[in-house]
Design a protein that fits this description.
Elements lengths: L1 E6 L1 H10 L1 E6 L11 H10 L2 H11 L6 H7 L2 H9 L4 E6 L5 H8 L4 E6 L5 E6 L6 E6 L2 E2 L1 E2 L2 H4 L3 H15 L4 H4 L2 H10 L2 E2 L8 E6 L11 E5 L2 E10 L5 E6 L5 H14 L9 H12 L10 H16 L3 H21 L5 H9 E3 L5 E4 L7
Helix pairs in contact: 2-10, 12-13, 12-14, 13-14
């Protein structure tokens, strides 16, 4: 799953250097209704018996009854859930180079960090309130469901489709294992239900539940527009799986690009690269869009042969980064200087530079207009 984290260059530096991202308390997200919309929409959905019956029949869920759902989604439980929403979230976008995300989260020549979440779960940890202990989670990003009855009442098919996805999530076979009983499942799933009006954001998120760790996490605070926002300093083991840094639109885009390039060339960074095979997979992915056009280019075929040999020989990661980092630069230079090579490929290489450490540095194609 490829996702994008829009942020400032300073936050990018922190993420690459420390392998940390702040998970913000969901009550203090940008949308003031962030933590209540999901609860209320799930409560409304549970009262729609015709739709729930249709879902039960469609999914063949004879293990669930209308009465069971009715007893869980009560007004009393709704109020209890509202009072107990101590979850922490990190948000990503499913789309790259999206103007609205640049304008809100990355501002002047900020960055979009492309992460490739290939596994079912990742290991995260932060300091706990108990000295010397870590709070730990294993999870992966999940898509946000955009669902608000008032905004979707004229979109019956879409409302039903989203309702079914929500009920699937509520009554997944492992949902009770991930949380603490039915009420906790309700609260947890509600954090992935956002107002339909925001569907163009195409958000995915990770939600960290403090109650799901052996040691309660240490909560920290940061100032944002005079509000003290609670957060968890979340470390991804081996670093977040970062594949690309894109510099956003801005009047000083080139200067920012140059500074990030200099940073990546001189500082040890955490990119979530586990081993040589993982590093070589990034090289192969870089060339994939133009693999057919490169079949007759000898220097490219030599590179592919060397990659195969390195995998067989189980070359160490440090050697692979040095050897293939230099070879990649040679292949890119040859293609850009060769009149017989595809012009689209040349533009691709010039806009997407493969850095020796294993990520791509690129620039947004959106003109600076704000």
């Amino acid at each position: 799953m490829e996702l994008y984290y829009y942020t400032s260059t300073d936050t990018m530096r922190y993420i690459l250097d420390k392998g940390d991202i702040f998970a913000t308390n969901i009550r203090y997200m940008n949308d003031s209704e962030e933590y209540t919309n999901g609860l209320e929409e799930l409560f409304r959905l549970a009262k729609n018996e015709d739709l729930v019956k249709k879902w039960i029949g469609d999914r063949g869920r004879n293990d669930i009854s209308i009465e069971d759902i009715r007893q869980t989604f009560t007004k009393e439980n709704l109020e209890k859930c509202r009072r107990n929403m101590d979850y922490y979230s990190i948000s990503f976008c499913q789309k790259n180079d999206l103007l609205s995300q640049w304008a809100i989260y990355a501002k002047e020549s900020g960055v979009s960090i492309k992460m490739n979440f290939e596994n079912d779960s990742y290991h995260f940890y932060t300091d706990s309130e108990e000295k010397g202990k870590k709070s730990e989670w294993k999870l992966a990003p999940e898509k946000v469901l955009y669902f608000t009855y008032d905004s979707m009442e004229n979109q019956g098919d879409e409302y039903e489709r989203q309702a079914f996805l929500i009920l699937d999530k509520l009554y997944a076979s492992d949902s009770k294992d991930q949380t603490e009983g039915k009420d906790e499942v309700w609260r947890y799933v509600s954090t992935f239900v956002k107002r339909y009006d925001f569907y163009q954001e195409a958000e995915s998120r990770m939600v960290f539940q403090p109650t799901q760790t052996a040691y309660f996490p240490k909560v920290q605070y940061r100032m944002d527009q005079k509000v003290l926002k609670p957060y968890l300093d979340m470390v991804c083991e081996d670093g977040w799986p970062i594949w690309e840094i894109m510099i956003g639109p801005g009047f000083n885009q080139q200067v920012v690009y140059n500074s990030v390039e200099h940073f990546l060339s001189h500082v040890e960074v955490k990119l979530g690269i586990r081993d040589t095979e993982d590093y070589l997979k990034r090289i192969e992915a870089y060339w994939n869009p133009y693999a057919d056009e490169l079949k007759n280019v000898k220097i490219y075929n030599d590179l592919q042969s060397h990659i195969k040999d390195a995998k067989t020989a189980k070359m160490c990661l440090e050697d692979a980064q040095i050897i293939f980092g230099e070879e990649m630069q040679q292949v890119c230079s040859f293609i850009c200087d060769n009149d017989g090579c595809n012009e689209g490929l040349k533009k691709y290489i010039k806009r997407h530079r493969f850095m020796k450490k294993g990520l791509v540095l690129s620039r947004s194609s959106i003109p600076y207009i704000y």
